[in-house]
Amino acid sequence: MRSWPALSVAPIDGWLWRYASGGSLRANSVATLAYTGRDLEGAIARAEGHYRVRGAASRFTITPVSEPAGLDDLLAARGYAQGDEHVTMLKPVAHRPAAPPEVSLSSEPERGWLAVYLAGLTADRVTVAPSILERLPPRRVFLACRRAGEAVGSGLCVADGRVASVQCMATSADQRRRGCARAVLAAIEAWAAGQGCTHLYLQAERANRPAIALYASFGFGIAGTYHVRQKRAP
Question: How much is the pLDDT for 22?
């Protein structure tokens, strides 16, 4: 939640309601990692109300550790459709990994980095992503794989405690399957090691087999799954 912050948030009995006016599922759904309330129906209604006033679909991210137990079944009974399954993948950070020289690092997204990353997004995500990037925590780095002086690959890493995220992975169409993504991953691991992190994590659609195969070949393993329950706005 902290590594990809929503533009608007509201606490609801331990949950975190999130909204970013479109695009990212993570930034437009209720995070259900903790629950402290006693009126579950009321908590769901409050979340729905927040989305309703914005004319947005009501969404909840469901994981094996979501609280309270039975939330997924309750949402299904209330007419929430289940979205595609996603996986969370985890990798131990290697001791003193080497950073490829073709990857540059920056504390802010440079023009070339943005061009590569935004090229693969849907229109609503292109509109919202720059605002989310402005809200990232300070322990972050933007990585660009450069060939002939031009950015052809992108990546983002945000360190939080002993873990670091792998995000915004993209490669220009004419540079795919030429080692660019692996170079960015190696540079991310080297930076995370320098931050004292012990693990890298990322999230991907389970159906995106090429991406999952790439991450698995780099040492990532599936640590968990999640999906989003969605109910259309009236």
Answer: 75
Confidence of residue 200 (pLDDT cuts 50, 70, 90): very high
Q: Report CA torsion sign: 18, 21, 26, 32.
A: positive
Q: Which domain holds residue 29?
A: 8-85+227-231
DSSP of 90-159: EEEPPSSPPPPTTEEEESS--HHHHHHHHHTS-HHHHHHHHHHHHT--SSEEEEEEEETTEEEEEEEEEE
Could you give the CA distance from residue 218 to residue 55 in angstroms, rounded to a whole number? 41
Same domain, 78 and 121: no
Q: Are residues 99 and 192 in the same domain?
A: yes
**CATH code of the domain covering residue 105:** 3.40.630.30
pTM over 0.85: yes
For residues 15 and 76, membership in a common domain is answered with: yes
Question: What's the distance, CA 120 to chain centroid?
Answer: 15
Neighbours of 72 (CB within 10 A): 18
User: Where does the chain have alpha helices with state H?
Assistant: 40-52, 71-77, 111-119, 123-134, 180-194, 209-217
- Using CA atoms, how far apart are residues 139 and 111, in angstroms rounded to an integer? 20
The answer to whether the beta carbons of residues 4 and 24 sit under 8 Å apart is: yes
Say how many CA atoms lie within 13 Å of 154 toward its Cβ: 22
173 vs 67, residue with greater confidence: 67
Could you tell me if 61 and 114 lie in one domain?
no
